C-alpha cells in the first residue's frame, strides 16, 4: 500500500497489535521511533494521528510491511467475524455488516477473541463435546495455530532467507548440481549419508532420518524435486538449528505438538530458501513474467514448491507480486493455505464452487486461469492446476491435489499466464465465501442458504438456485 506525503491516519489498535506482536513495551518502541512513550500512548489510543513520516520510521526500524497497517487487516478481521456471526446460533440477532466492520476496525483484539472462542465452540461441537485443554486453557489445533502464526508474519522470515542465501551460494559453487552438492555437504559437514531405498522397505514412509547411523533414507517413490527438497530440509535442520529454535521460542506456541509442527513448517520454509534463493528466484520471476514452468525447470522444483515460494516474496528491497495459494483434495478439504496477498479466504468453512480450483481435477496437469470477483467487488487473477502426491504402496484413493494460486487483478499484467486476456474489461466469474456466509443471490452452484437470511421457497416458481432467500 502507499501513503500520501501529508496523509494522517488513526490506526491506534493496529499499532498496538504490531507492538505486542514484536514483544515490545511502549518505552522500547518509543525509543526505536525517536518519540516519547507518552506520545506513543496517545497514538495507540487514537488521540494523535499516525503520520506518513512515522509510518516510514516504523518500516525502517522494524522491517514492517506497510500493508500490515492498512485496511486489509481490518477487512480480514471483518470477514472472519462475519463468518462467525453467520452461524445459526446468532440468526435472531441480524447484526448489520457496518457494525461488524466497525468492531474489526476499532477493536481487532475483541474480534480475534470472538473468532477464537467460536473456533473452540465449533471444535467442541465437531468432536462430540470433548474440549482440548492445556493446563485449564483451551488451545486451538496445532495446524490452525501454526497457519495463523505464519499468516501473521505474512509468510516471510528474513533470518531464514539470509541463511538460505548463504547456503545456496556455497552449494552453487560445486560442479555436481544441487542434489549432488547438497548430499556432499550433508556428508562432509554433518557426517550424514543419503540413501535412496526401495519402496517396499520404506512402506508408508517417504523419508526417515536414522539418528544412530546418521543416514537419511529416501523412498524411491519420491520425484527428483522432492528428493532434493528433503535434503535441503535436513541441511536447514542442521545448519539453522539456532535460528529455528529462536523463532519457535519467540512465537511461544501453546504446547509441545504445536511447537514441533511450527519447527517443521519453518524448516520447510528454510529449505525453500535454499533450493530457490531469494534474489535469483525473484529476478527470474520478474524477467519471465512469473512463468511457473520455467521457474520449476531452472530451480529443479515442483509446481507446488514454486507456487508456495511465490507467496514469500516480501523482502522490502525486492518485493514480488503478492500471491496467495491454497491446496485442496478432490473433496475440497484444504491442506495448505498461504497468503502474501489479500484474497478473502473462508477460514471457518469451505470454498466457493465457482472458483476453478475445483475444475482442475477434470483437466489434470493443465494450467487453468480465471478472473474472479468477490462480494465486495475485489478482483483477482487466479491459476489452478493439479499436482501429484505420493500415494502409499496400497495405492488407495485419488493421488491428485489441486493448487490454487493468484493475486489482485492489478498485478496480472506482469504475469505471462495472463497474456492474451483483456485485463481492462475482463470476463469475470463472481465468487463468494462458503455458501453459509455468502449473500450472492441467484447462484446456481449454491449448496445452502445464507445462515443470516430466511429461505424464500415458492412452490409455484423454479429458481436457478435451489436455495432462494429473502433480501436483507
Keywords:
single chain, 472 residues, alpha+beta, 17 helices, 13 strands, 13% strand, globular, disordered N terminus
List the helices and strands and how they pair.
Blueprint: E1 8-9, H1 12-21, H2 26-33, H3 37-44, E2 50-51, H4 52-62, H5 71-85, H6 97-106, H7 108-126, E3 133-134, E4 137-138, H8 142-152, H9 158-172, H10 177-190, E5 193-197, H11 199-202, E6 207-210, E7 215-219, H12 224-239, H13 241-251, H14 256-275, H15 278-288, H16 292-299, H17 303-310, E8 324-328, E9 334-339, E10 368-373, E11 379-388, E12 400-408, E13 429-430
Parallel strand pairs: 5-7, 10-13
Antiparallel strand pairs: 1-2, 3-4, 6-7, 8-9, 8-12, 10-11, 11-12
Could you describe the 3D structure shown?
- This protein is α+β, with helices and mostly antiparallel strands and 472 residues long.
- The chain is 42% helix and 13% strand.
- The chain is built from 17 helices and 13 strands.
- A hairpin with a 5-residue loop joins strand 8 and strand 9.
- The protein starts with 7 loop residues before the first strand and ends in a 42-residue tail after the last strand.
Summarize the structure.
By secondary structure, the protein is an alpha+beta fold. The protein is built from 17 helices and 13 strands.
Amino acid at each position: 500500500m502507499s501513503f500520501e506525503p501529508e496523509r494522517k491516519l488513526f490506526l491506534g489498535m493496529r499499532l498496538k497489535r504490531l507492538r505486542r506482536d514484536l514483544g515490545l513495551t511502549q518505552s522500547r518502541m518509543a525509543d526505536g521511533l525517536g518519540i516519547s512513550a507518552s506520545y506513543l500512548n496517545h497514538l495507540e489510543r487514537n488521540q494523535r494521528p499516525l503520520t506518513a513520516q512515522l509510518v516510514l520510521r516504523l518500516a525502517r526500524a522494524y522491517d514492517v510491511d506497510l500493508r500490515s497497517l492498512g485496511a486489509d487487516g481490518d477487512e480480514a478481521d471483518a470477514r472472519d467475524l462475519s463468518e462467525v456471526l453467520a452461524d445459526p446460533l446468532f440468526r435472531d440477532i441480524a447484526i448489520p455488516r457496518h457494525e461488524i466492520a466497525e468492531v474489526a476496525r476499532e477493536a481487532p483484539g475483541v474480534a480475534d477473541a470472538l473468532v477464537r472462542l467460536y473456533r473452540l465452540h465449533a471444535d467442541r461441537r465437531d468432536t462430540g463435546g470433548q474440549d482440548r485443554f492445556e493446563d485449564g486453557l483451551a488451545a486451538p489445533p496445532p495446524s490452525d495455530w501454526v497457519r495463523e502464526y505464519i499468516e501473521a508474519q505474512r509468510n516471510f522470515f528474513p533470518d531464514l532467507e539470509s541463511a538460505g542465501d548463504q547456503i545456496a551460494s556455497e552449494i552453487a559453487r560445486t560442479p555436481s548440481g544441487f542434489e549432488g552438492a547438497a548430499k556432499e555437504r550433508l556428508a562432509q559437514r554433518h557426517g550424514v549419508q543419503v540413501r535412496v531405498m526401495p519402496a517396499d522397505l520404506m512402506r508408508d514412509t517417504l523419508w526417515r532420518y536414522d539418528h544412530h547411523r546418521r543416514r537419511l533414507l529416501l523412498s524411491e517413490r519420491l520425484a527428483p524435486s522432492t528428493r532434493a527438497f528433503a535434503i535441503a530440509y535436513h541441511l536447514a535442520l542442521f545448519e539453522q538449528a539456532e535460528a529455528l529454535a529462536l523463532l519457535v521460542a519467540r512465537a511461544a506456541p501453546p504446547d509441545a505438538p504445536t511447537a514441533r509442527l511450527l519447527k517443521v513448517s519453518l524448516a520447510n520454509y528454510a529449505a525453500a530458501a535454499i533450493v530457490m534463493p531469494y534474489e535469483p528466484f525473484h529476478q527470474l520471476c520478474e524477467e519471465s513474467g512469473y512463468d511457473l514452468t520455467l521457474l520449476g525447470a531452472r530451480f529443479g522444483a515442483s509446481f507446488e514448491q514454486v507456487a508456495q515460494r511465490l507467496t514469500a516474496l516480501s523482502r522490502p528491497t525486492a518485493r514480488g507480486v503478492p500471491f496467495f495459494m491454497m491446496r485442496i483434495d478432490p473433496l475440497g478439504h484444504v491442506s495448505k493455505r498461504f497468503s502474501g496477498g489479500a484474497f478473502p479466504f473462508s477460514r471457518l468453512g469451505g470454498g466457493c464452487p465457482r472458483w476453478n480450483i475445483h475444475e482442475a481435477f477434470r483437466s489434470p496437469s493443465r494450467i487453468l486461469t480465471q478472473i474472479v470477483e468477490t462480494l465486495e467487488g475485489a478482483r483477482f487473477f487466479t491459476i489452478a492446476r493439479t499436482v501429484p502426491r505420493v500415494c502409499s504402496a496400497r495405492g488407495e484413493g485419488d493421488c491428485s491435489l489441486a493448487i490454487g494460486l493468484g493475486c489482485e487483478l492489478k498485478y496480472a499484467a506482469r504475469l505471462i499466464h495472463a497474456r492474451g486476456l483483456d485485463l481492462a474489461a475482463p470476463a469475470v466469474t463472481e465468487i463468494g465465501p462458503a455458501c453459509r456466509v455468502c449473500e450472492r443471490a441467484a447462484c446456481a452452484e449454491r449448496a445452502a442458504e445464507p445462515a443470516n437470511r430466511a429461505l424464500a421457497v415458492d412452490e409455484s416458481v423454479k429458481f436457478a438456485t435451489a436455495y432462494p432467500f429473502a433480501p436483507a
